[in-house]
């Protein structure tokens, strides 16, 4: 079996960078989870307000178990927030909850720039799954 040391030179820095980024994200979340928001709004309320402000009314916001397991599913049109984000009024929870609705905008026909990314990295987004027409046409 052949082993190329160049593999380690390329892979180790990438692995270390990803571990460092993960650690920073988790430690920042832990730190700012202790800071309450001035308005007392929960993560779910903040996400709902952003979606409504963008004119997106067909996305359901649901809680899920896990730590920092928040995501938007364009197929089911569900914005899933981890319980720590969904119910919390912390600054960290609001930051994550306000980040996720941005992904829902990929599913709207008025947004064109992110559609290029969606075409490259995702299955085709559709306005209506039965019609097969792309929201990024």
Blueprint (SSEs and pairs):
Layout (H helix, E strand, L loop, with lengths): L4 H28 L10 H11 L6 E5 L6 E3 L4 E5 H4 L4 H9 L1 H4 L8 H9 L16
Parallel strand pairs: 1-3
Antiparallel strand pairs: 2-3
Helix pairs in contact: 2-4
Structure overview:
With 137 residues, the chain is mainly alpha-helical. Helices cover 47% and strands 9% of the residues. The chain has 6 helices and 3 strands; from the N terminus they run H-H-E-E-E-H-H-H-H. It has helices spanning 5-32, 43-53, 83-86, 91-99, 101-104, 113-121; strands spanning 60-64, 71-73, 78-82. Strands 1-3-2 form a 3-stranded mixed beta sheet. Strand 2 and strand 3 (78-82) form a beta hairpin. Helix 2 (43-53) runs parallel beside helix 4 (91-99). The radius of gyration is 18 Å and the shape is extended.
Pattern of helices and strands? HHEEEHHHH
**Helix amount:** 40-55%
Number of helices: 6
* Computed structural class: mainly alpha
Low-confidence stretches: 125-135
How far do the termini sit from each other?
A: 48 Å
β-strand amount:
5-15%
* Structural Rg: 18 Å
Which descriptor suits the 3D outline? Answer: extended
- Strand arrangement within the widest β-sheet reads 1-3-2
Oligomer: single chain
Strand element count? 3
The major sheet is characterized as: 3 strands, mixed
**Mean pLDDT over all positions:** 82
In short:
The chain has 137 residues and is mainly α. Helices cover 47% and strands 9% of the residues.
Brief descriptors of the model:
137 residues; mainly alpha; three-stranded mixed beta sheet; extended; disordered C terminus
